[in-house]
Write a structure and sequence with these properties.
single chain; 281 residues; alpha+beta; 5-stranded mixed beta sheet; 5 strands; elongated
């Protein structure tokens, strides 16, 4: 019986070994990338190590002054910088004489100081003069400074108690106010205020609704006589949250029942100031 000849494998590595080696290399690169992108929480690691310490061995304790925080290579190397503004005070000078070594600095006209203050005071006096009768009767109070004008409309003469309907006798007064605030640049804030006595009627469930409704009534009458852009107007209802005086007496509560028209002025030029307010008789 003849023995069968044993066939030897071809020389060199088998073909599948190259594919396996490539796969192992890709897997190694994948896990290296995972490790690079990973973030280790040192606090949790120490807690886990403490649990393992009780079960398997002893670990040396290292005291730290603050709680360790995890980090990663990406966060450490590629964190964007935080730009901070650098304040610079620049004074620019101009000259046509290049032979001069030093330049003279001359201060320009100050339009934001005393001139603007005088114009605001003049405007306020004009408003008080036009409404002197109502101010004398205690129906209106006019105050202000260089930045704003506040016209306080008392409940007396303008609204009936517990009502948001504007009295017809007060409408001519409101026409003068509307003409004044329309010619004064700035935001117009109309806010309603009440006392601390609760109200609950079929029309107004609370002082919030009453204060808001009175502010809207004033606005409706102003818009009826003057064409004021809507983006200048803000309506607010404060109820009894912003009293002028404590609500301890009937007189004080009457003072707190009011509608305030506040004009917060914007930038204005000096030549425009004399013509801001003109009252028609």
């Amino acid at each position: 019986m003849e023995e069968e000849e044993v066939k030897c494998p071809p020389p060199g590595a088998p073909l599948w070994l190259a594919t396996f080696a490539d796969l192992m290399s890709l897997l190694m690169c994948f896990f290296v990338l995972l490790l690079a992108f990973s973030e280790m929480d040192a606090l949790k690691f120490k807690q886990l190590a403490g649990s393992m310490n009780e079960a398997f061995g002893v670990q040396r304790d290292v005291k730290t002054k603050e709680i360790p925080k995890g980090t990663s290579i990406i966060a450490k190397e590629f964190t964007p910088g935080r730009p901070t503004p650098t304040p610079l005070k620049v004074m620019r000078q101009h000259t046509t004489d290049e032979r001069k070594n030093n330049l003279d600095f001359r201060k320009g006209p100050d339009r934001s100081g005393s001139e603007k203050t005088k114009a605001a005071a003049k405007r306020l006096e004009q408003l008080k003069k036009a409404l002197k009768d109502q101010i004398g009767k205690g129906q209106i109070e006019v105050t202000g400074d260089n930045e704003r004008t506040i016209i306080r409309i008392r409940e007396k003469g303008s609204f009936s108690s517990g009502s948001a309907s504007l009295n017809s006798k007060f409408k001519p007064v409101l026409k003068k106010i509307a003409d004044a605030i329309n010619k004064t640049p700035g935001k117009i804030h109309i806010s309603g205020h009440t006392d601390n006595i609760p109200i609950s009627t079929y029309k107004f469930r609370s002082n919030w609704e009453l204060s808001s409704a009175r502010a809207v009534s004033i606005l409706d009458e102003i818009l009826r006589v003057e064409n004021i852009p809507n983006d200048r107007i803000v309506i607010q209802g404060y109820s009894d949250t912003v009293p002028l005086v404590p609500n301890t007496t009937p007189k004080n509560r009457a003072i707190n029942r009011r509608v305030e028209i506040e004009v917060i002025r914007q930038t204005e030029t000096v030549q425009d100031l004399p013509s801001l307010i003109k009252f028609s008789e």
